[in-house]
Amino acid sequence: MITREATKEDLKILLEFEQGIVSAERPFNSTLIEGEIHYYDLNEFIQSPDATLIVVEDNNEIVASGYALIKKSDKDYNNFKSYAYLGFMYVKPEYRGKGINKVITDELVNWAKSRNISEVRLDVYAQNASAIKAYEKAGFEPLILTMRLKS
Question: Are 84 and 35 in contact (CB under 8 A)?
Fold first, then answer.
């Protein structure tokens, strides 16, 4: 397996991955609208100097993805001015459980470090125990839990 930066030629499969993420998240989020949803501007992540979008290939087939985006802290009281936000973490079902998500996470964290970014964050649904376990295995720890009330 190899890891590389995504290109525009990869967009078709990456858009399929995006819908796979939406499908996986629907059971955790009753506020999502029906039908096709687009969370990400994948083309922007490919082009932006403040982002990297990577893919993992196995025998010339893209099997996983993830991105890191440098964001400015919106809190004056944080002890960091910028952080890397990770997202679009997707591994094809038949490749799950093989450590690919950790490979992606490590690659994205290293990319952030190469840009002198030491704070790395991501979001995960509180009920998504398998994702939480995978991120904890990669060194992440819970920080805040957003709660909601539908009135």
Answer: no
Could you tell me the domains of the chain?
2-137 (3.40.630.30)
User: Which residues pair with residue 56 across a beta bridge?
Assistant: 3, 64
132 class by beta-carbon count within 10 Å (0-12 exposed, 13-18 middle, 19+ buried): middle
Residue 89 C-beta-side C-alpha neighbours within 13 Å: 25
134-147 residue pLDDT tens: 899 889 999 998 88
Residue type at 143? L
Q: What pTM was estimated for this model as a whole?
A: 0.91
Residue 151 is which amino acid?
S
pLDDT tens readout for residues 21-58: 999 999 999 999 999 999 999 999 999 999 999 999 99
Give the H/E segment covering residue 47. Answer: helix 42-47
Backbone angles phi, psi at 47, to 5 degrees: -90, -30
**69 in Cβ contact with 51 (< 8 Å):** yes
DSSP result, 93-135 = GGGTTSSHHHHHHHHHHHHHHTTT---EEE---TT-HHHHHHH
